[in-house]
Design goal:
Number of domains: 1
Structural class: alpha/beta
CATH topology: Nucleotidyltransferase, domain 5
Oligomer: single chain
Number of helices: 3
Order of helices and strands: EEEEHEHEH
Helix content: 10-25%
Shape: globular
Radius of gyration: 16 Å
């Protein structure tokens, strides 16, 4: 399994769409086989899912991911866990040992409110 994490130094970047680099980590079981730092600064955010899919990525762990970007990741069969912050190595260790879930971090998913347009009685 290949996991991509947008980075800012040694920490997870706060927004996927603003990240200049990602770390692509090849995991097998509870061990790390390979790690590659990839420059994505030349890509438009909409191009990132296709680029990561071409590298074999099936999981993204990120700080924040715009909803439309999440949908594009889904189209490429890439699972996204967002709302995660911290040191990359610590997050990877936690992911391998205990797993991560959407909303574990300080940015829980919002419930969508229905918006009514027009006249209401």
């Amino acid at each position: 399994m290949k996991v991509a994490i947008p980075i800012n130094g040694d920490r997870i970047a706060p927004r996927m769409s603003l990240a200049k680099e990602v770390i692509v980590v090849n995991l097998q079981g509870k061990g790390e086989i390979e790690r590659e730092e990839v420059d994505i600064s030349h890509l438009h955010p909409i191009e990132v899912p296709d680029f990561l899919a071409s590298k074999g990525v099936t999981k993204v762990i990120a700080g924040g991911v715009d909803w439309h970007l999440q949908e594009i990741f889904k189209l490429h069969n890439i699972d996204v866990t967002w709302g995660i912050i911290g040191n990359v190595d610590e997050v990877l260790t936690f992911y391998q040992q205990k797993g991560l879930q959407l909303g574990m971090g300080p940015c829980p998913p919002r419930r969508r409110r229905r918006r009514f347009r027009g006249f209401h009685f």
